[in-house]
Amino acid sequence: MAVQKSQPAPGKPAPDSTRRSEKSRRAIYDAALALVVEVGYPKTTIEGIAARAGVGKQTIYRWWSSKADVLMEAFLDLAEQSTEEAGAVPYTFPDTGDLAADLKAVLRATVDELRDPRFEAPSRALAAEGVVNEQLGRELVAKLMQPSLDLYIGRLRAAQDAGQVRPEIDPRIALEFFISPLAQRWLQHTGPISHEYTDTLVDYALHGLAPR
Amino acid sequence: MAVQKSQPAPGKPAPDSTRRSEKSRRAIYDAALALVVEVGYPKTTIEGIAARAGVGKQTIYRWWSSKADVLMEAFLDLAEQSTEEAGAVPYTFPDTGDLAADLKAVLRATVDELRDPRFEAPSRALAAEGVVNEQLGRELVAKLMQPSLDLYIGRLRAAQDAGQVRPEIDPRIALEFFISPLAQRWLQHTGPISHEYTDTLVDYALHGLAPR
Amino acid sequence: MAVQKSQPAPGKPAPDSTRRSEKSRRAIYDAALALVVEVGYPKTTIEGIAARAGVGKQTIYRWWSSKADVLMEAFLDLAEQSTEEAGAVPYTFPDTGDLAADLKAVLRATVDELRDPRFEAPSRALAAEGVVNEQLGRELVAKLMQPSLDLYIGRLRAAQDAGQVRPEIDPRIALEFFISPLAQRWLQHTGPISHEYTDTLVDYALHGLAPR
Amino acid sequence: MAVQKSQPAPGKPAPDSTRRSEKSRRAIYDAALALVVEVGYPKTTIEGIAARAGVGKQTIYRWWSSKADVLMEAFLDLAEQSTEEAGAVPYTFPDTGDLAADLKAVLRATVDELRDPRFEAPSRALAAEGVVNEQLGRELVAKLMQPSLDLYIGRLRAAQDAGQVRPEIDPRIALEFFISPLAQRWLQHTGPISHEYTDTLVDYALHGLAPR
DNA sequence: GCCTAACCGAGACGGTACGTCGAGTCTTAAT
DNA sequence: ATTAAGACTCGACGTACCGTCTCGGTTAGGC
């Protein structure tokens, strides 16, 4: 499960990645994440990252095309490490047979993650960049979000097979009832996020707003 | 409803707003919006706005505290104008008695607005800024989104009174089923937005995912 | 006798010289000369000058087109100041009636000046630059050397009128017998320079190498 | 006469010159001279020379200590080749018994050489470097100029023996009347150089400026 | 109808960061 | 062991904007 390297500015003679310094790469990831946490994304500069990592600026420009690009890889790397560290099987979704309970459990974990300060600053920064820069946005979605979304889809399909979700429902849309309200509250500061809140989302979504 | 001017950096002798040049203000709004559309938010600079507006830099710094601040006011102004232009009663929500139909109608209009290129660039820029800058984010929510959200709340309460929505539902959460998925698809490029899509959202949300 | 300002890079909107900061100009001159003396010309950088002068780099680039250009003006300014300081009538050549004595006196003064450490580093640097960069070289000749050369020509013509120099001699060539050997020894380190040496030059040049 | 290799940075384990690649050396000389002619000395870089010569940078740093050092050897090599090529006995000075004629002939040849574009760029570059870098300057004088100067001294001494030059004249100073004015005009662009000019120098110098 | 304060266009200023280039060092593979 | 190749750290380049600070020149009210 290797991290895909992003392309540096095209037209340049591609650097030889076999000779790349692993030490520098790690130092750059660490410096970038630390700076984003400490001083915020806009005040995080390529020069600052280079200085903190004890690395020449050119070494950053050689392998990445922008600050956002560095941060994205750093964040992907962080996510990978955290997953490994947690010892968890990385990409699974609980299936106890109780759809509501499973969704609530996963969403509670997501809430906790969104509040982890190690994740908050860089993921906000990346999300903001993705809003404005479509190319980066799509990369983010593909690399960071899609794997999780696929798990939701799988779980919802299983629920359909078990007769707990109506068969005509499109799981790719249904999952947004759980993900999107949480995402918007977090991204746009439109409201607080909590375990109770996500529990409520699950209940509302499964049973609908209208009386039965 | 006059646009509230934002405070310039505190500690300064407050400028006398009665002597402010209306012509400059308009020129600055126009230049800011045009530049964001033409070159994108990150490449829009205060110097660029000043030059294009034929205005001194100080005139911008005197009345606004940041690029985002200028753009926010410019955008609010644009939104106001558009509303007036449309001749519409600005802040109402249809109530035909058919909740689903009313929601679908409003969401279709929202989809159309999100696709209007005049709106897209600046509102993306502001949204992105709001993700990262909490203070600005809250201002955006309060000034740009809250009025609309309140209309949703009002309509949902009416539906509750009419027995079309279960009484224990919190309308402030319920409205997110309509707003948030659309917002996320648009903000994060996670999927296409269309009238069919929002129609589906309304149906799913009202009747729930589970079989009845 | 104003210092001619050199042209910044053409094609740029010419800066308004009436608003130029005299303080910055002085500080830049001082820093440039000091650095050339202290660390040598090649290690003198625009950044270094700016930092030492407490000035933004742009302020240098706004008014000068290169390091050599800065240094040339700084040196011209220094020369001017020194002349004023010395209280001397700036552009005269002694005429006691004794050509040999007058030439020897002036050349002895020149030798002293060439050895003054305040002058040595910058003038070497400029001379070197002028060797390789013809445009700058011609400017140097015109602004720094020509006035002195003209004085030699004047004195030699007077000597011709007085019958002390053959009338068919071209003073513009003759003066090189006094100037050029000294210049070459100094520039190219081909030999030591001293009062005795220049005295000898005068004697040899006036009376020739061949027996009479 | 083998070219003495200059010392690389001291303190390093001296490379084994018996295993040196002659092909690389030649390629480096050619590349260095070509680049100086084509793009000028300041824009000639070690990287550029290495790339053009198809050589690793280290190969240059191993054997030379600086750009000027490379160029000096390259130029010495060029001078040697040219001399051989010309088939001439390398280090002689004509002695027809007519001092004036001999000097004029040699100076005319010098003028022609100074105008040869193959020589001009590199020798200007070296001269400029020598003005500012005393160590290199002295090396240049010793290796490039001294042999010629010695020939002048020899010829002048012969002339003294023949009674054509006054015995009390120091030939080491006298020769500067022929060399230095030409050198200065060429180096500092203070005037045009031509056969007529050098002829005039010889006449003026031999017979003096004063009436006889 | 004048005075005088504030605003205005303009843009120079001290700075920070940009993205690029080259210096000189170090590592790898191949000859 | 030298070589071609090129990644590395470092420092300077010249540019773009930042936010502050003068400059005249309008442009109001308050007298």
UniProtKB/TrEMBL annotation, chains A, B, C, D:
GO molecular function, one term: transcription cis-regulatory region binding
Domain HTH tetR-type intervals: 22-82
Keyword Ion transport annotated: no
PROSITE patterns, A to Z: HTH_TETR_2 (PS50977)
Ranges for region Disordered: 1-23
Domain of life: Bacteria
DNA-binding region: 45-64
Cross-referenced Pfam families: TetR_C_11 (PF16859), TetR_N (PF00440)
Keywords from the named record: DNA-binding, Transcription, Transcription regulation
Name listed for the protein in its UniProt record: TetR family transcriptional regulator
Annotated organism of origin: Streptomyces variegatus
Lineage: Bacteria, Bacillati, Actinomycetota, Actinomycetes, Kitasatosporales
